[in-house]
Design a protein that fits this description.
The structure is a homotetramer. Chain A has helices spanning 14-25, 44-47, 62-67, 81-91, 107-114, 121-126, 132-139, 150-165, 194-197, 211-223, 256-266, 316-331, and strands at residues 4-9, 29-35, 59-60, 71-74, 94-97, 127-129, 144-146, 173-179, 202-203, 229-235, 242-249, 273-275, 293-300, 305-312. By secondary structure, chain A is an alpha/beta fold. In chain A, the strands form 2 sheets. A 7-stranded parallel β-sheet of chain A has the order 3-2-1-4-5-7-6, with helices on both faces. A 7-stranded mixed β-sheet of chain A has the order 9-10-8-11-14-13-12.
Chain lengths: 346, 346, 346, 346
């Protein structure tokens, strides 16, 4: 069987570079080419010294990369993936977008939160939301896959079984998320200047983060109702990982053991979701550099409130790893291929 | 005017040592003596090398310290402050407890959360809850002052003006707090072993932290109703500081500007509470090693939910600094005396 | 071809657990069993939650593990590997020791630095020093392999080409090393308590670290003369990685370009040693969780002093990864098998 | 007695802002005005939120600040302090420069390392090098004071007693320094981007750092001979502090106890230099946010090599604190005034 030829557009950013790293280790992928507009002609190892003497590829023009690829991954600012998807679609290439352009079903949401319009509405009809644990069947045949955002991945996986049970007030979800700094990307900013960020901690974009409609969309699909969340992201002075602490009010009395049994059942065959034993708590420490998502369940018995905690590596399950998981599904490879790293605990 | 002679019982732990450090810099305090059972006879600078050639005091017997002091501070595990308070009370010494024994009005709460009973109920009638911004008048004449917990301080100061306005569902408060590791103290544990904690993040004691009844007690006093909270503390891989992110559902439409005006008014004369301008967010970076508490107000307009963020240094406003603020009030000194350090931003 | 059955004695410590993690990912290894005296009967995933649902092994008795293994790795305090090696030797098992018992040729050095005597001198004659880049041929047939210490690995690889050239004062080497905290292991101590270590930095065991004779032994073999070093390790407030900054005085005028050419040639066929281009500097950031060793060359022209900088992951090339590299060599597998992870840059 | 009116030119950078913070806490200083070209008209608390509601000053024009000041501090890129010094000198203001323009006696050194020429040679004759422990008498009457660099401060204080004893090979000093990131300043760069720097460690500017001639100049004055050093700075992933590990070869047999006695004597009356007891090691943890410099002495007995370790807060004793110490000396105040903070150990 021939290897899949994969190309990465926007490979100079963090999500792109992580994807390159992971694709390089995939046994059935040939990294056909990588692209960066800003660093055209430079070697990726000049930007990311860890690749030195391992990944000896220069950044090429976009069209050159597409031409050599069976699957094209893109990691670009929003608004730039649509024209690229069009090009790939016309050439019969599978397109997996790590950006935000193909995540929202409702153009009005995109307009409201991203302040742009769809240029190619017909493409969006072809696109599927690439969260494998929830939409695996759609992904198998899709030509355009919108890879989920990092926060939405951590939140949807934590809530999915609960949303399906119809036992909470779905208009009253509070989601308090905390992310490492790689989520902010390679670009320099005052807020990620080391002496500023180190030994600091604070929320940001309170009630105003662009992942909000994406989260509500997925949760709404799961429960079949409108969902409303308060979503507060925070920036952690660490490199990688997201923890989401989620508060859901039960409509009736709930026994956490029963809920736990439902979770275990729901994720029984999922290789990348680990429902932790009752009494344990998800910690972003334990899946760094891997594609796992840990979920733990807790009850605030005094308030009949379910508290869920989930943890992922924002760069892997929250970006490049999940994109490869989608590729594996789409191309008929075992879903864990190239993603079976054992996480370290220290 | 003669200096206040201050003694610290339990000075070998983090809260005690921080108190020693701050007392040493207070212009009207003479540090009369310090005590530690475990390190009796040793110099405090042997435990805390930063004090070398500055604070040249050995740990002494408890009684010796009390005898030399006008005010006795205690930083001990719960259950141990009560007999000490009795002793001080009999000798006419002011007693300021940094532990949990004198924080709860209702013995039933103490029994439920700390699994101990009051041995000296009459002492608890003399005790006041030492949160100066809310109970200043009581503190002025108290002989026993229960210094608030670190989390409760950050939460009560954030919510106080709101609780008094009677515009939220006080049975539905969600409080997601994050603390640096000094809050866990000097004692070694797997959870604070560097390679374990560094680059990690997770909640702990979900719905089960002992500060819960203390928080509910203060909030209940403020609004005159029963309050119920979900309180989730998290451990941050940093040294100092607490951020509390608080979610309160408004009963009616709220304009954040009006609420902000109320906050500014409420704290107008408070030297240590800074209500940040709308649009700014409290960050524990900006009051480290000082007694400030920053509070910022935010609205999730889509859900008519008020989101408050507060930040303190858990070791100062959350422990030793607040204890000195209480001492200043009790002894008639300017409230900011010895506490007017300017915080650094880096 | 049948997989190698590998057993790990002392698998509950950091080096042992890292070895378990890496062995699990090796395509031609079956992890036959793991041992820990302290945690006998417990699951390793209870100690290291990152292994949950992946490595479902309990700690077993030593003899049980040995019986099932073709190769036995040991990660034990010094003095405990010798009897184990004897047992393995008698049973015809290959023994790879991550401890210090089989690193020193000269028993007098062992006595001086480890305060113990050899119980089984004949075993030491069978043992080889498992630094593959320097002693590969010996490793191929050895039944006992002493895996090098973490510091000595970083130092020997940095200096090897230089030592062979006979152009420095080999009695005047200064080695200033800095290590992450995983090197201190799983055991709790004041010095690795998070609030103590975080935002701190200092040397330790100045001129008295046990790796000193091991370093001098290897360097001496390379140049054929007695070597004397000043070795100062420091503890970095990070998790993984060692940087060694090495100062060597040239006996004659040296051109760094020529020296660089010698280094490139020396390591031309080594898959795990990367000689960085002149102008670049080795940084422990760029080989975390992998088996690479980066080396960079610098000249202090004003003093005709060669400055070498090397960087490794102390847990991989400095422990478990190198042990697997030795296993691969010993069992005739490609040397990089199971070790071809691409390091991340963030 | 009237307070000293102090002005700060270049107050928007880290060194300037730290100076502002410290001057604000000085009981006999009135902060007359602060300047920043880039942030003219803005409030300093907008840049440094920790100052909110405490230091309510806008950045003003340079001349306006000078006019209001008795002493003018400058924290500017090299080359910009000279014209400012000229202006202050003409107006009879004391000028304390935190930059590099007035540190080097020999213009040739300045030309070689800073690539600029002196425009006002006569000013340099008036300037003194403001390292109080070594040049206190000169400072008392100087009108222009060149505040030492951070690395040179940590190194000169560690070596001063030794240099005066004439017992080492002064042509063979190796200095391996490690600094926190505030030393790199407020400006954004790839090397201080959080995800890049966090969990990293490496040297930089090996054998080429501009502090080299300044260090050699001071050491040379102390021993009366030419001194040659290899100086290698490293960047630590922490905020504040410098540790210098210094290797000096003894010319004769040395007893560390005797050397220690010399050090204790040398610094007996210095309030800010703490010679640690033999057996202890200087750690940058223990003087953060204060003006102390800790020095520890060690012997590598096997090589008759003296190893010195010193630690300072680069922003305080390495910049703003030392500048205030110089001001205190120059204006006849007690040297510790405004600088008597007790450092924390956590």
């Amino acid at each position: 069987m021939k290897k899949i030829r994969a190309g990465v557009i926007g490979a100079s950013g963090y999500a792109g570079a992580e994807l390159v790293r992971l694709l390089w280790m995939h046994p059935e992928v040939e990294l056909a080419g990588i692209n960066s507009k800003s660093y055209l002609g430079q070697k990726i190892a000049d930007l990311y010294p860890s690749f030195y003497q391992i990944i000896d590829l220069p950044f090429e023009e976009e069209d050159s990369v597409i031409a050599k690829s069976d699957v094209v991954f893109a990691s670009l600012p929003h608004g730039l993936s649509e024209p690229l998807a069009k090009k790939c679609d016309a050439l019969g290439k599978v397109f997996i977008d790590l950006g935000a352009d193909f995540r929202l079903d409702n153009e009005a949401d995109y307009q409201e939160w991203y302040h742009l319009q769809y240029q190619e509405p017909q493409l969006h009809k072809k696109a599927v939301y690439g969260l494998p644990e929830l939409f695996r069947e759609d992904i198998k045949t899709a030509s355009i896959i919108g890879n989920p955002g990092c926060y939405p991945t951590s939140i949807a996986l934590a809530l999915a079984p609960l949303m399906k049970l119809d036992i909470i007030h779905e208009q009253h979800l509070i989601i308090d998320s905390k992310s490492g700094t790689t989520g902010s990307g390679k670009g320099l900013s005052d807020s990620t200047h080391f002496p500023r960020l180190n030994e600091s901690f604070a929320p940001y974009k309170i009630g105003a983060h662009r992942h909000t409609p994406e989260i509500e969309q997925t949760l709404g699909k799961l429960c079949g109702k409108d969902v409303s969340i308060s979503f507060t992201p925070h920036l952690l002075p660490i490199n990688r990982g997201i923890v989401s602490t989620i508060y859901a009010d039960a409509t009736d009395e709930i026994h956490v053991e029963e809920l736990y049994a439902q979770y275990v059942k729901f994720y029984a065959n999922e290789p990348f979701v680990r429902v932790l034993p009752l009494g344990k708590t998800a910690d972003l420490k334990y899946m760094k550099y891997t594609n796992y998502c840990d979920v733990s369940l807790h009850m605030d018995e005094r308030n009949q409130r379910i508290i869920l905690v989930s943890a992922i590596d924002n760069m892997v399950k929250g970006a490049g790893g999940q994109a490869i998981q989608n590729m594996n599904i789409r191309f008929g490879y075992p879903e864990t291929m190239g993603l079976s790293m054992v996480p370290a605990s220290f």
